Request: fold
Amino acid sequence: MKADKDRSSDFNLAYFTVDDLEVYSVRGDGLASSGALLVTYGGQTIEQNGLSIQSGGLTVSDDPTTMNSDNPHRRVLTVTADSQLFDQDVVRISAKRTTSRWGTFIAILCACDAVPHFHFLSTLFLTSQSRLQLTSCHGTNCRQ
Reply:
């Protein structure tokens, strides 16, 4: 497809409807709009300007999620709960073993320069026990 017009948001390059409802469109500036997006093979890459979800949340299933940043001046992750009526957990992390294996595992580990600053141990014996271990680190001198 080619438009004999400069790149602009004032026209649609492609516009698809079903029962007079838009199901897919591509504006003249490249913005694509769809009722839903399903990627069945090959994944999806966003090279610039990130991803914004206005409502409905985000669910990631099966594979772990990793966030990486090489920008020394920006946070990697910020979670904000902003409401005068907010009455829920800001962050909830749940680790559940699906086998009857006993023992200790680290549910949360926070580290800087590969040095653990704190971790949350979950110990499973006859009764469930958990403990939070905080470590404050100053250079190579760490103390609990």
About this structure: The chain has two domains: 1-65, 89-144. Residues 1-65 form one domain. Residues 93 and 103 are 19 Å apart (CA to CA).
